[in-house]
Amino acid sequence: MSVDEKFDNAKDKVAGKAKEVEGKVTGDKAREAEGKAQGFFGKAKDKISDAADTVKDKAEDAVEAVKDGVDNLKK
């Protein structure tokens, strides 16, 4: 996950929490729900980015294993 992605996700989580608290303090249920949704969205983007990084790493490992196998066959 890039630094920009981490920053963007953290921004969503912090802004969401701020909206949620604002909604609780003012009694605005819609604002509170909006904040919860935005915070959840930031957390979800973190999980998706982490999963994508894991898949990418596994794919790179598989490609390297195939390359190593081909190189061993050539010897």
Q: Based on helices, strands and strand pairing, what is the structural class?
A: mainly alpha
Q: Unreliable segments (pLDDT under 50, ≥5 consecutive)? A: none
- Count up the helices: 2
Number of strands: 0
Q: Would you tell me the overall average pLDDT?
A: 91
Supply the number of structural domains: 1
Terminal Cα span: 38 Å
Radius of gyration: 21 Å
Major beta-sheet overview = none
Level of helix content?
over 70%
Which band does the percent of strand residues land in? Answer: under 5%
Shape: rod-shaped
SSE order, one letter for each helix or strand:
HH
Question: What does it look like?
Answer:
Helix content is 93%, strand content 0%. It is mainly alpha-helical and 75 residues long. The protein has one domain. Helix 1 (3-26) runs antiparallel to helix 2 (29-74). The relative contact order is 0.13. The mean pLDDT is 91.
Defining traits:
93% helix; rod-shaped; YjbJ_sf; 75 residues; single chain; mainly alpha; CsbD-like domain-containing protein
